[in-house]
Amino acid sequence: MHFSSNVKQFVLVLIVGIFLLLGYVVFNHFNERQNMLSKPILRSRVQNIVSPERLLYKQPSVLVGRTDVVAVTPWLAPIVWEGTFDPDLVDIIYKSMNLTIATTVFAVGKYVRFLQDFLETAEKHFMVDFNVRYYVFTDRPDDVPSVNLSQGRHLSVIQVPGSNRWQEISARRMEIIQTAIERQISREADYIFCLDVDSKFHARWGAESLGRLVAVIHPWFYQATRDRFTYERRPASTAYIPMDEGDYYYAGAVFGGSVEDVYTLTKVCRNQLEEDARNSIEAAWQEESHLNRYLLYNKPSKLLSPEYQWDDKKTKTKEVKVIRFSSVIKNYAEIRPNV
Questions:
Q1: pLDDT, tens only, 40-63
Q2: CA-CA distance, 266 to 287, in Å (whole number)?
Q3: 288, 307, 319, 334: which one is catalytic?
């Protein structure tokens, strides 16, 4: 059988086209595989771990999620509520990184009485199976209770001066944490949480809370509008926030993040507190006011819902499925040097 020259050319072009198509498919397959292997990874002490922030949080419309609460900020930071993360996936990712979490707590004056409950409940619920270092700042080191700590968990007692004014103790908190990070914590931990001692843990507080800069939404203000926030409103203070500004009202009882980011936060807040002191002005809620000012202009990378800082005086609301950490009921007139 004989074919015309046109048919021969057509067959030749067809064969070449098939080879080109096969070549493209093979090239594309290996190129996609290479792209998957070369995606950005989280920079940490443990290499080759995909960034946890990309894996952990379910969007409201995907999988289970939550539709009854806001689970993301306007700047796209996750807000951690029960049902917005997979605890098993969280643990798989973070436990492989061999992290150490520092936890600072102030037990000054009569507040030392809250320390045993704080530590014992933390051992049951806070960062279980992670390396944890507690840093207890107190003027009564002899009154620090002996608590059995799990493997990989340590406690350091750092003596600090007491005061006749609780406001002064509160105001010096940023300075003391900054100094501790410089002298010790920066060598011993990857992340840090700064927590109030007059509180107890009730349920899991795990690695879902870790992030570059983390704040908790205040339980008394998470349903309030901005005009109700108790920001510092006097322009004379370095903590001043105008009436038409503000995202959330953050609780001073909980803040954290990477050691480096929390160091920067405490340093800035300390400088502002000292500038206010030189100008004979004290912000409405001391370090909490300065914390809110800082976080307004340095957005947190993750927010914790009020599950992570409830108040035992407040009735549980339907949005709060679980209370993880709460401030206990107390008589301020009895435990504070001044009211």
A1: 322 333 333 344 555 555 433 333
A2: 10
A3: 288
